[in-house]
């Protein structure tokens, strides 16, 4: 073989498979969105167009990866939870985090015009990503609680609250749930195929097994959400 004398360099690539039987979370976060949000005049502290675009990009990731059982987003970040037993890319950490963030970023740019019809994208945005493993359901729930508490804290933080009170006279308790709770996307048990059958519509290009995606602005810290959706942790 012509290349055999060079083949050995392949062994320098490190194997980075995620530990078996752990929840795999890939979190993406806007790179220097302090600058990006002011360059594009995002409304402070929450811009509904920007949040909508983030959720649109997250949906695109969940359409690509059926093994993502839940995603949670707020501000310039989104976390994607792969089921414990996922075999996607042989659980290779860098492959998972890089394809997730690449799909997310291209989708963010691709759909920009739908959310900002009157504003041209000023420069190409970037997102970072990391893979984190959580061995127990409690660890995973605590992780997601941490992110949602960060959302509430961020919206509540003294200077932002000051702005809200002094400039707009609005109370935190009256803010939309989107701003207070962030967005959780889950898969409904109704699949596209069965919905289409119900509506007597032909199947579209989406895979028959693919479930409907529901974006919710609700509390995921308390047990109500988890008890109402036991299939998520059972995945
Ligand atoms: P990083 O992540 O270390 O590259 O730096 P940043 O600047 O992205 O910092 P980060 O991720 O800790 O904080 C998110 C920034 O994005 C923060 O400056 C506020 C801004 N941002 C996110 N969502 C909105 C929004 O809806 N409206 C406005 N005005 N700003 C937002
Ligand atoms: Mg950061
Ligand atoms: Mg950021
Ligand atoms: Mg952030
Ligand atoms: Mg290749």
Automatic annotation (TrEMBL):
GO terms for biological process: tRNA modification. Residues 154-221 form the Thg1 C-terminal domain. Mg(2+) 2 binds at residues 29, 76. Mg(2+) 1 binds at residues 29-30, 76. It catalyses: a 5'-end ribonucleotide-tRNA(His) + GTP + ATP + H2O = a 5'-end phospho-guanosine-ribonucleotide-tRNA(His) + AMP + 2 diphosphate + H(+). The keyword Transmembrane does not apply. Keywords: GTP-binding, Magnesium, Metal-binding, Nucleotide-binding, Nucleotidyltransferase, Transferase, tRNA processing. Its EC number is 2.7.7.79. Binds 2 magnesium ions per subunit. One of its GO terms (molecular function) is GTP binding. GTP binds at residues 29-34, 75-76. It holds the Pfam family Thg1. Its cofactor is Mg(2+). This is tRNA(His) guanylyltransferase. It comes from Ciona savignyi (Pacific transparent sea squirt).
